[in-house]
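Troubleshooting entry. Yesterday's outputs looked truncated, so today I'm pasting the complete records for two proteins to confirm everything comes through intact. If either block looks cut off, that's the bug. Protein one:
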Amino acid sequence: MTPYSAQDIKEADSKPTIAVNGSHGLLGQTLLHTSITGRTTVALSADIRDTHAVFAEIEALKPQLVIHTAAKTDVADCERNPDEARAVNVEGTKNVVDAARAVGARLIYISTASVFSGREGNYREEDMPEPINVYNTTKREGEIAVLAYEKSMILRLNLIGIHPDGSRGKNFMEWIVDSARANNDMTLFNDQFINPLSNWTVAALIKMMIEKNMQEKILHIGSKDRLSKAEIGKWVLARFQDYRGNVTEKSIDNAVDGVIRPKQMWLNVDKVLGYGITLPTLTSEIALLLEKHKQSVLHSGI
């Protein structure tokens, strides 16, 4: 069963169509809430591991643009289940690329700053990726599949956010906020640095790129500054004056799952700034997300 209606497809006949997979994820869901001038945006439902289903759905819709956000992102689970990680992040991506090529659609692939080793940080688009765990490796192999298609663009980023329909506790920001509300103890890494953007800002930037018809092969986006995950946690907790839990800081080298993770995960954003695009500070992004969370809580009556 597809999540778009016959009316959606009828409208798509007269408007350039954007198809988004991973529509239940943080960014995919936000993109479906983002109005893009002159475009009809629809969600794809096919399991990207199913070659036939992916081709059938994209050929039926014939979008002008596919935004590929779907991925297996749980780093520890990827390490435990490398075959599944490869099936989704590599073979699934190849299916999406091939289906987009078959209908001549442009493709935007959402990748990650963690394709780099994390030893240095300030990574530029032309720097050579050096993944250090299963998740990172499969995302890089997905990039290689995308780069083989001439009508594609790779966006590398770190993403933080809260789902448009409210927290699911499934990502770093939601976990911190939910833990703060519940007065749970937290352990935060003080040596992993990121310059992430919120799901809402990333969706707005993608909208701008589409409307400007930007053609870069690889583009890094991120906030203008960087913080450690421990610093982000402290900044969030400063907004929860009644929090009574305990916060422990430690090195990411001591993560309980034993997975090796990059530390310096921040990206150089000079190229995107060269387009005259304004990027926010990380603290302003955190404030935006806390306000979004407050609104969702008030709306839900929790």
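Protein two, checking that the full record survives here as well:
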Amino acid sequence: MKIGGSCLGRKDDIRRTVDIVKENLKERVRPILVLSAFKGVTEELLAQIGNALEGHFNLEEIEKSHYQFIEDLSPSVRTETEKCVRALLEELRKKLSKVSDTLSLSPSERDKIVVYGEKLVTEIVAAYLTDSDFEAKPLWGDSAGIVTDSIFGNGSILNESKNLVKEKLNVSYIPVIAGFFGKDKRGRIVTLGRGSTDYIATFIAAALNCEAVLFKDVDGLMTADPKIVKNTAVIEKINYLDALELAYYGSKVIYEKSLIPPMEAKIPIKITNFHKPAKGTTICTEGVATAISSLSNVVKLDLFGHAEVTNGISSLLSELNAFGINPLLLTKASHHDASLVVRGSETEIAQRAIRKTNNVDIELEKGLGLVTAIGPKVQKKGLGSVSRLLLDKGIDVSTIEQSASRRNLCIVVKGQSVALAAQALHDHFICCCAHETL
């Protein structure tokens, strides 16, 4: 069971976590917890890393919040926990002092610092469980079997971790595992990127052949982003591939990497609301759903060359992959030109990769958004009806592309049209089809 940082901001949230453990504790079956840092702590750590690189930092807010969390523990448990928390905070202070003194920070050192939120939360939540007469123990990285590659900031869990997880978590106590990071074969801390607490939880569930439950501050995966689309609904069941596409094309509720281990192991993922009972979303082999995903701030790179640009596409994709970039969209208009759509933050790196593999001219179109319709109703209704719909709505379309399977439809629009396009597609594929039986 993974509990996200947005769910852990108050003492009552820790007590709720203890209650969840009680509710799920059965004879000969015990829950395994994977935790993100307390709400706001990772952001504060990143802010203090930035300050340290300018020669100063302040841990007062982090210290105050964590000491407040342990105030209500019984005296004996509190004394031991306070000792652990103080030791971790002192380690953190020393690492930031080094950064402040040298005004430099390697990717490896950054990873060592930014994980202290997870280290602290596991100590404190394990203490609350102990205070409630459970035997619990905090585990970090390879002590929970999570061995990674050495890509600092965006690592991946090695397959050999499957057997290590089975070995390390074959215990009688309740493991309280730090999310967000593992350790490489040299014992160095490696963070795993955005949403990686989900990734660790689903990897462990796949290794142990059990259900993964992801507790979040939402009811589940939605048919579209409720912040920009009206009349959205919770998706009760969706298959792995459609969920993967939703994540890839913009959903912030689930992370791409976290879907691969359970998809391979064919174990279900449940996404549910931490604060209130909800049916939630189940991701599994047979789920059927249609949904709209959206991204703002994407950039289109049009490539023009005298030689055949498309001959170099495979080399370009390999080079982009080496930089950690997977284009959101790739279109080939002819042998001499092609277009890539990437996230805005990836623009500069993408240009470097293109110039390294192709002698081409690059034209940028910025200020764009990407809206993607995913699922069986997309396949059923097709491209023509959507083109007419967007034209009728007065939405300026830069690119529209349907996958070979025809189960997803990607539309690049002006940034200010993302909400309008998402609402139009939601109405077209989902709201007006709610009565249909697939």
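Both blocks look complete. Sanity check on protein two: Residues 291-433 form a domain with the VC0802-like fold (CATH 3.30.2130.10).
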